[in-house]
Every structure is written in structure tokens, then in C-alpha cells.
Design goal:
Distance between the termini: 41 Å
Order of helices and strands: EEHEHEHEH
Radius of gyration: 13 Å
Number of strands: 5
Largest sheet: 5 strands, mixed
Strand content: 25-35%
Strand order of the largest sheet: 1-2-3-4-5
């Protein structure tokens, strides 16, 4: 299933809801381009993975690259609601130690607020 990305804004935080697969190639490029266009506006990004059923090494590379880009701009990229299969991939690659993972969008957005306080 092709990756679709829906965007919403909560204050100064962009929330992206992904549905489909995050994989190397055109599908993953959609996510990279969408976040890349948002970073100049705000480096605070939440990626909701509730609708993602598969991620490959290229998809992981995209997420890591976006995290680095956000941090280089003084921001962060947080993950929300990864399915069990995606959680396993994050755990097996030790990326669960690099990414902050939250149960829902509200928790992730609130975590940005706490960083400022």
C-alpha cells in the first residue's frame, strides 16, 4: 500500500499521520519531502505511525535523517503509536533508544511544551 501523509498543526508542532509503508524509494520520499518542507517553519515534528504496517531499512534511514535535520534546527522528531511490527524493528535496530515514542499525539505535543518550560 502506498504511503499517504496527512498533516495537521498543533501550535508550533507539525503532526503527520502516515498510512501505508515507509520504504526506500518513491513511497518514503513523500514523507521526506513533506517534513523537509516543514522544517524551515518549525523543527518540531510528530510522526504518527499508527497506520504504518511496514518499514524497511530505507524507511528507518528516512526517519533518522529527518530526526537529524530537526535536531540541527534546534527541534526534535517524535514518534507516536507505532504498531507492534514497527516497534520490533525499532527495538531490533536499537533506534528505540534514539527516538522518543509516545502513545498519542497529545502526549507528544505536550512533551514539546515541557522542553520549553
Amino acid at each position: 500500500m502506498a504511503l499517504t501523509v496527512q498533516t495537521q498543526i498543533s501550535g508550533d508542532v507539525f503532526i503527520l499521520r502516515c498510512d501505508g509503508r515507509i520504504v526506500f524509494g518513491d513511497e518514503g520520499a513523500v514523507l521526506r519531502e513533506r517534513v523537509g518542507s516543514m522544517l524551515p517553519g518549525t523543527p518540531k515534528i510528530v510522526v504518527n505511525l499508527d497506520g504504518v504496517d511496514y518499514i524497511d531499512s530505507g524507511g528507518l534511514g528516512i526517519l533518522v535523517g529527518l530526526l537529524v535535520s530537526a535536531r540541527n534546527r534546534g527541534g526534535e522528531l517524535k514518534l507516536v503509536s507505532p504498531r507492534e511490527r514497527v516497534k520490533d524493528v525499532l527495538r531490533n535496530t536499537n533506534l528505540d533508544r534514539i527516538f522518543r515514542v509516545y502513545a498519542n499525539n497529545d502526549e507528544a505535543v505536550a512533551a514539546f511544551r515541557k522542553q520549553v518550560a
